[in-house]
Every structure is written in C-alpha cells, then in structure tokens.
Amino acid sequence: MQRLLVFVFAVFFAGAAMAASGKWFKGNLHTHSLWSDGDEFPEMIAQWYATNGYDFLAFSDHNTLQRGEKWAPMSTPARRAAFDSYVKRFGTNWVQSRWGVITNSDDTIADVNWVKLKAFSEFAPRYFKPGKFLLIPGEEISAEYQRAPIHIGGINLAELIPPLKGTSVVHVMDLNVDAVYQQRERTGQPMFPHINHPNFKWAITAEELMQVRRGQFFEVYNGHADVHNSGDDAHANTERIWDIVLTRRLAELGLPVMFGIGTDDGHHYHDWLPTKSNPGRGWVVVRARELSTPQLIGAMEAGDFYASSGVELKDIEVTRKTYHVSVRKERGVRYRIQFIGTRRGYDSRSEPLPSQNGKELRATRRYSNDIGVVLAEFEDSSASYNFRGDELYVRAKITSSRLNAAEQRGTNALDPKLLEKNPFAYQAAWTQPVVPRAAR
Ligand SMILES: [Zn+2]
Ligand SMILES: [Zn+2]
C-alpha cells in the first residue's frame, strides 16, 4: 500500500509539475522491418520517420534486437523493388548483397540476391542528430498463450529477451513484463515494457490486462490494420478496456494507473492502403527536458505525454484543482474535448457475455455506464476540468472533426453516433489519467 501511495503521489505531482518545463517530442515506439515481418530495410524506415516530423523512433521487430548477421532474400517482385530503391538511396558502398540459392516451398531451388541487413549499431549513428532525431533499440517480445498472441514491446533493451511461456494470459504478460524490469534492475539501463494491441486476435481481456502488476503502459491505439482497436459486438474497444482497467486497478486491486500509448506497428512501407499497416497513424508526444532516451523514458513514466492518431496538443497542465488541455488548432478543423473518469461509489456490477452455442466467449465483461463516464465535454480547442474530488481518475480525450486515415468511412462532420460506435473513427489525442488528490 505504501508503494501505491508513493506512486499515486508521484503521478499527481508529476502532473502538477507538467507545465513547468520541457519540449514536446513526437515518436513511434512500435516498428517492424525486414529483420522480422516488415517489408522495408531499417535505414529506409528511419529515413521516413526522420523526414516526416518525428523526433524519435524505436524499432520493435519480433524477437530480435537487430543484432548479429542476417541476410534477407530478395525473392519477390516487391522485395526486388525495395532493394532497387535502397541501393539508389544508400549506394553500393553501403549496401551489401550476394547471390545464393533459396529453397522454395515446393522444394525447388532458385538463385536469388541476398542482402545483408544492417545491425542497429551500424545504422543508428547515421541518423542521430542531437536534439533533432534519435533511434531507440527495441524488441517486440512475441509470446503467446494457447495461440493467443501476447506481445510486449521492450523499449531500449540492453539484451534480447526470448519470449517466456506461462500458464495463463496474465501469467505470460507478467513474466515478460517482469523480465524487462529485471533486466533494467540488473543492467541499470533505463527501459520499459508496453503491452501491445490487447484486441489482436482478441487475446487479452480488460480483466486480464488490469492484473499485470508492473504493467504501466498499453496500446490504446495501434495503427495495424488487424488489431481491432474499435472492438466488435462481443468485444470491448480498447478505450473501454482502458477505463475498466483504470477503475478496477484503483478501486479494487490497489494497483497504480496504466498509461495509454499510440503506435504505428508499421509493417508495410510500399502500398499505402487502409488495409495495410502503414507508418504515420499512431504516436506519442512526450514532454522532456531534452531529446535523449533516458529523459524520454523518465517523462513517459511520469505520465508526461499523450497518445495521438492525428491531434496535436499545445499544452497539458494539471494542478491540484484543474486538468487543462489545449489543442494546436488546424484551420477548418473542429475539436471536442472530453474529460473522462469514474467516480467513487460507481456501480461496479458486471456480467459476462452470453455464451454462444454453449461455449463461453473469452471477452471483456459488460459493465455499467458509471465506468469511464464523460465528466465534462466542450466543443472547443481548449478546456479545463475542475476536480470534484470524488473521481478515481480523470483523463482527457480530444477528438477532431477529421476522419482517421486508417478508418475511412462515415462523413467528414463530427458525427456523435459514429464516434459512439467507433471511438477511433476520427483523429484524436488521449492524455494520461491523473488521480486527483482527494481520491487518495
Ligand atoms: Zn504484435
Ligand atoms: Zn508489432
């Protein structure tokens, strides 16, 4: 309990100190390359982010830290086209390739061009521009439980963490999250785990996610085409999951808040389609003293950042009395600011989903509307919420009238019905939950 109090205290006062200092840095923490199942060379990906308004980028290939020797076969027309652009951009002095055989799935043998992938330590220094751009190593620790993907982003790891097996979804999350913190404690290198895409293959329910003791971050928005941020008839969307997790951690489990991040989970860098997982869809903006990995991690752990799928904020300021947010306005775009939270004394009843054909559905339970209620709403580009004192937590969501590129449907007016059906239909920003003083 002591530890919880210290933590909540820290979060609150981190919030209180927010307005004081720091610059905003935009980054993506979830990126795949040819080192795993992405379709582009890491240097080309770094180049894309460095020239598209980002300040930092973490790579997170499946179960690899982009170290050692790896050769990729240019065995498809798409890969050969990627190779041509790669050579054109970096030249034959940099690119290393050789011809060799490949065994096809039908056991025939073909001659293909193999390209040596550059290790993180080789290409990262090329992109490091002090105060301007930074690459961070990482790994998507890709564990599973009974074929359900349990993926944990390990940011700034010093050593590879092979995915650990466990006896339940929660156990697998706990083991892999703890492995990151154990490595951090052992090496002294700042690093953190974030729990990826809970709705990917409907792997993780809110009741499971909330139990991860050291789970401080999860992806409330992931830009991958198949991760179901918006849920479906049977499954809660990831924003709803967040509110359930926050409410039950604070009210029942004695655990601290969990922060929500936005990421790309980019895999596809050639075909730009809503059905592909392209870069530029989800990110975090972190307020830090300077652009360095330790500073970014420290600020994120203090909750001094927001997740975005398109909305840029001018300021977030939390004092003892007030939660204030303001938007960096874009011409012709309208904004809605909602302060969302759960009040003490909420109706905590929940029920499981009706079973289908006698089979119990593995899905988040249904809760009352007291959880994650809209405490106040403003049609404006800046707004303040005065804490009443009975809130377990308060967070803000800022929705713009601009449709989310990855969710191209509906009209271009902020349609409340569409928003209710799909909280990700429009571009948005999500600020972090704060525990008001009186709730402690
Ligand atoms: Zn994943
Ligand atoms: Zn991924």
First-to-last CA distance: 11 Å
Overall 3D geometry? globular
What share of the residues lie within helices? Answer: 10-25%
What does the radius of gyration come to? 22 Å
Proportion of residues in β-strands: 25-35%
Q: What's the total count of β strands? A: 23
What are the bound molecules?
A: zinc ion
Structural class: alpha+beta
Instruction: Provide the spatial order of strands within the biggest beta sheet.
Output: 7-2-1-13-14-23-22-17-20
- Please summarize the sheet with the most strands: 9 strands, mixed
What quaternary form is this?
single chain
Tell me, rounded to a whole number, the average pLDDT: 92
pLDDT < 50 stretches: 1-19
Enumerate how many helices there are, as a single number: 9
List the helices and strands and how they pair.
Blueprint: H1 2-17, E1 23-28, H2 42-50, E2 56-58, E3 61-62, E4 71-73, H3 77-90, E5 97-103, E6 109-116, H4 120-127, E7 134-136, E8 138-145, E9 148-155, H5 169-187, E10 192-195, H6 206-209, E11 217-222, H7 238-253, E12 259-263, E13 283-288, H8 293-301, E14 305-308, E15 313-318, E16 322-327, E17 335-343, E18 350-351, E19 366-367, E20 373-378, E21 382-386, E22 391-403, H9 416-421, E23 426-431
Parallel strand pairs: 1-2, 2-7, 3-8, 11-12
Antiparallel strand pairs: 1-13, 4-6, 5-6, 8-9, 9-10, 13-14, 14-23, 15-16, 16-21, 17-20, 17-22, 18-19, 22-23
Helix pairs in contact: 2-4
Bound molecules: zinc ion (2 copies).
